[in-house]
Prior knowledge:
By secondary structure, this protein is of the alpha+beta class. The chain has two helices and six strands; from the N terminus they run ααββββββ. The radius of gyration is 18 Å and the shape is flat.
Amino acid sequence: xxxxxxxxxxxxxxxxxxxxxxxxxxxxxLILRKFESINQNEGLKKIEAEGQEFDPRYHQAISHEEDPxxxxxxxxxxxxxxxxxxDRVIRPALVRVAK
Length: 99
């Protein structure tokens, strides 16, 4: 609930047009880090995919593309992070794969 409270407070205090958003952005970044820390403490971890070999157990390919700079079968880009809870895939990473 604390994260939700933090986000609601941030949205109530978002900068008006023309105001410097730097401090507001730093606050949002702090909330994100807090949320990531809570998730990590609960056993949720992000699937590392960028530059890795494509593995359908952990990755869902949305495209296979030619890329002269990337070896065939390697992940070119992560479009949406995937997550695991313990040994279980909660959501595979959505990726672009080199062919």
